[in-house]
Amino acid sequence: MHDAEAASYSTGERTSFAWETARERWPVILTQAIDDVYRSVQECGDDKEKETEGRVIVEKLARLKYDVQHDRPLEPIADDGESDVAAYNAELAQLGPLSWLKAPWLFAECYLFRRMSTYFKLSTHWSRYDPFARQKIRTFRSSRPAVLELAARYGELMQQMDAHKADDFAAEETLFAEMCEICLWGNATDLSLLTNLTYEDIQKLQGAEARRKAEANILVNDLPTAYNILTKARDAAAQRAKTQTPGSSVERRVDIVLDNAGFELYVDLILAGYLLRAGLATVVVLHPKNIPWFVSDVLPSDFAALLNALANPKPFYETPSEEEELQGKPAPAPLTDAERSDLAFLFSEWTQMYANGQVVMRPNIFWTQPGSFGRLPKNAPALFDDLKTSELVIFKGDLNYRKLTSDLDWDATTPFEEAIGPLGPGSGINVLALRTCKADVVVGLPAGKDEELRQAEGGGGDSGARKWAWNGKWAVVSCSQGKEAATSS
Ligand code: F6P
Ligand code: MG
Predict the structure, then answer these.
(1) pTM for the complete prediction?
(2) Of 105, 131, 153, 457, which sits with the fewest C-beta atoms within 10 Å of its C-beta?
């Protein structure tokens, strides 16, 4: 375990986003899950056994919601046959007794989703059911304009990139930054932040200025370090290829520890496709979750659902949803031929990369364990060793950042490398966090920045709450070069 020097955020702390999350967001999340399962129970038809099991799950979820709202104790996780039950319960016993509204935030929130998953796993007919799947795909459908815009741009960029290849490194670095920033803001669901770029545009002052505007909200931006890591690896591989037997392996891997499904997974795949096409990686390994997690996180089935939507975009985008019909909304506009061909290009690009083994999905139970990623070397040594073979491991989103930094109340100027402890310098892993801020923890800021943001409108003022960091408006892009030796300071 990465025992750190700062305190954990707690659901009992009024000034933490944990307070609001436990009292307002968790009951809503549970209500959504109850509604979803209830709806599926209605669709069971003649399958009475399934219907009865579904009703039991609804009752369990309702009881859990009651427990959360009434600050009842966290009970041991029922044995659903998974290998992490004992570790969850040992930690609960060690931290406990805990009640919902006075618990360490990170542990309690992971426990909440893990506990929900037992209700399904212990059933016969619902063991693989995801109560958030409907929500995830609905949100993806509603991001249609941005999806189409990016699909068009990706096709164009790939053509232009092929034409300019291998001679313009300044433009390549700019494009790398653009792709990473699109991928970063895809987590904020604030789609308006996407800039409209072409390969030529990004070389013009205006394009650079537009990007600089969005960059003003990135409080720490280590993308140049990440680009340097990937180009150095590419150069070294080219050098090795010259001296080694023809055909010997020159694999260069980039890993993406995924966050959310739908639009965010879509932009992650755009980044993966770009890295492969630009020769900045030869393989991209994606790490999804294997149980429904923090509502929107990617499960392997979400990857399939996304590809399915792209394979059949007409029914996906043009069939009115039940809600649209009930609200009497006009039918969605048909896709144009150009839009359909842009989506078809993406579909063929991604399915080919997947079929060729250039894009790989690799779930691991470690990602849904509670607590810090600093536990990786001890709790998941095989995964740790595997990640060491990657040139760069990209951690997407807010929760992954909370886990990287142990979700502790660090001083905001604490260096990122220090806050990530065992994954920092000397770990053998190059870490890049692409995080829009949606929780209290933040590190690596210049002195005075946190204070300045607190004093700005809605930033929390003198309340003691770091409110500016709760709404996804600000971001941090932090890189740690763990393949380099630790320096004593
Ligand atoms: O419930 C709170 C939270 O854990 C916050 O950290 C964050 O707002 C959200 O859930 C998860 O965000 P993300 O999908 O970016 O990890
Ligand atoms: Mg998430």
Answers:
(1) 0.93
(2) 457
